[in-house]
Write a structure and sequence with these properties.
mainly beta, Pnp Oxidase, Chain A, seven-stranded antiparallel sheet, 14 strands, globular, binds flavin mononucleotide
């Protein structure tokens, strides 16, 4: 069972910008709640002709930096590779990452209320493999991963391109993932150039 901070909003919110729309005139699958409209839970709005494999190919064309999202639980450290990191707000300083609903790292984040983000460097592809399950998993003490503890006791990958220390601020269900929003308490840059994921491979910027 997950514990920790409250799930702030259980349903992904779709703003339609139609404040005056009568609820009887709402598109199929939406429910009215106050002045806003929400996509009804479990409803599929996708065109059945949208081929998931084709969609995967299109999504693979979107370049992304890759980060290790780290946290801790009673077993030790937890971490996974994510390409879904997004800076959200400067004031207050917020970032987000989307975590698989069934990932052990999400459990650790929600249980501890803390997580750190390490943007991997160009020469840290081997760590990308370790933290994405493509190579032997990292042990709970991160003995084979160069790291240092952040001020919150959660590890940061040594030699990364940039890092953020976060307190869990909010969680939003989003399909098979959860959007996890963190309030950034500390951040810094390293010397490394970022590693980029594109077309199912890792690249440098040069
Ligand atoms: C390039 C790449 C990007 C990924 N991005 C994400 C992501 O944004 N969120 C996520 O939950 N998993 C992502 N994954 C998958 C996780 O890294 C993988 O499922 C991991 O083994 C989960 O570990 P855990 O269950 O121990 O937390 C990505 C994998 C790869 C190869």
């Amino acid at each position: 069972m997950r514990s920790g901070p409250k799930l702030l909003e259980a349903t992904p919110r779709i703003e339609l910008g139609m404040e005056l729309l009568q609820s009887s005139a709402l598109p199929l699958g939406y429910v009215a709640f106050g002045p806003r409209f929400y996509l009804r839970r479990g409803s599929r709005q996708t065109d059945p002709s949208l081929d998931p494999n084709q969609l995967r190919d299109v999504l693979a064309y979107v370049p992304a930096g890759v980060v290790v999202v780290s946290s801790r639980d009673e077993r030790g450290y937890r971490g996974l590779l994510a390409s879904s990191f997004v800076p959200v707000s400067l004031d207050p300083p917020l970032v987000l990452v989307c975590l698989d609903r069934f990932s052990a790292t999400l459990d650790a984040v929600t249980g501890s209320g803390q997580f750190n983000v390490s943007l991997l460097g160009r020469r840290q592809e081997f760590l990308a493999d370790r933290f994405s399950g493509r190579a032997p998993a990292v042990d709970p003490g991160w003995r084979e991963v160069p790291h240092r503890p952040g001020a919150n006791g959660v590890p940061i990958v040594e030699g990364c391109a940039a890092w953020f220390e976060c307190v869990l601020q909010a969680r939003y269900e989003a399909g098979d993932h959860e959007i996890v929003v963190g309030l950034t308490g500390a951040a810094g840059r390293g010397e490394a150039e970022p590693l980029v994921h594109w077309q199912r491979s890792f690249w440098g910027l040069a």
